[in-house]
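Dear Dr. L.,

I hope this message finds you well. Following up on our conversation about the binding site, I have prepared a predicted three-dimensional model of the protein together with S-adenosyl-L-homocysteine. For your records, I am including the exact sequence and ligand specification that went into the calculation, followed by the structure tokens. Please feel free to forward this to your student if that is useful.
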Amino acid sequence: MTRDPNPVSDFPVRFVLFEPTHPGNVGAAARAIKTMGFSDLVVVNPACEIDGVARARSSGALDVLLAARVVPTLAEAIEGCGFVVGASARRRKLAWPELDPRACAAEVVASSRRRPVAIVFGAERAGLTNTEMDRCNALVYIPTNPDYGSLNLAMAVQIIAYEVRGAIGVDGPSDEEDGSREEGDGVPAAAGNVELFYEHLQRVLIDSGFLRPDNPRVLMRRLRRLFNRARLDERELNIMRGILSSLAPGSGRSPSATDDPDANE
Ligand code: SAH
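The resulting structure of the complex is given below.
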């Protein structure tokens, strides 16, 4: 099965930097969005050259930086977008619906299925004024220390880009074979088999003298808790039973460790 190398690229999400003043932040923002699979960077009326410092800070995202569009106005940056969010360290609840990064990301992803979405970030000092916010449908605020909540511009971009990637949902646990999986790996052990294992364990512990048959309850309960927490899969259960058999042959019918060539891996 071939996998789309970057499923995030199917979602038209544009990152807009409004009048940034530090080239390093522009480069770092390019890097931030590329690491999350995005590539659409627009810079509005920068108050700095996008120079060697920007290129150095973009690191492996030089392609994204070089492809960034520089436009004179916010209106041009958000042209064609159906949903525009302004990222702000200052909360202005009364005028704009405020979203936290996760809720914002969910709306961004949903909306981007219909039209491109823009997320606008303000300048290092000034942030976004109400004039820019007037062009936004919502405000996203990253919860921070109430005494000092102003993130570095590129770091704010990173957090939002990360959340949008998460909302796209491309990073679930890998279900790809790594070549070392065997039958029973990852298949949760069936309750009946787990019960047989506990019986087997109890027999071995009684035979060894570790468990007093007159009062097995507490220890067995603790051991059950330990193994139940681990949520053994079929293969692990077989290994455990194989170990018990090897310690006390004849104590219970079970697969032997030799049934499992990787038991000693
Ligand atoms: N002094 C400015 C902060 C600018 S920080 C102000 O008061 O707005 C540069 C940009 O990073 C901000 O305009 C915003 O887009 C983003 N940013 C920084 N901290 C943020 C936060 N806590 N939540 C959302 N965006 C933030």
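In brief: Residues 87-90, 121-122, 124-125, 127-128, 140-142, 144, 149-151, 153, 156 surround S-adenosyl-L-homocysteine (CB under 6 Å).

With kind regards,
A. P.
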